[in-house]
Each structure stands twice: as C-alpha cells, then as structure tokens.
Amino acid sequence: MSLQTATRKRRTKVARPNSKRKDHEYVQDICAALTISISYILFT
Q1: Where exactly are the structural domains of the chain?
Q2: Are 26 and 15 in contact (CB under 8 A)?
Q3: Measured between alpha carbons, how far is 16 from 36 in angstroms, rounded to an integer?
Q4: What pTM, to 2 d.p., does this model score?
C-alpha cells in the first residue's frame, strides 16, 4: 500500500535526486516515455 501510493505520488511530481529509489523511478520514467512515444508513432 505504502509503496504504490509513494510511486504514484512520485510519478506526478518531478523525480528528485535525493529520493531513495531515484534509479527505479528513472527507469520507470524512461519506460513510460518509450511506451508513449511508440504508441504515438503507431497511432499517428
């Protein structure tokens, strides 16, 4: 419960360098950007 809410809150906010899971969040951001760009290219 805590992890999910924390990740959701961190997704809305900008990733901060002092966060404990900055690497994991960075990877999630990259994956999200990739999926968005791929879907945008496919559906456009």
Answers
A1: 2-42
A2: yes
A3: 22
A4: 0.43
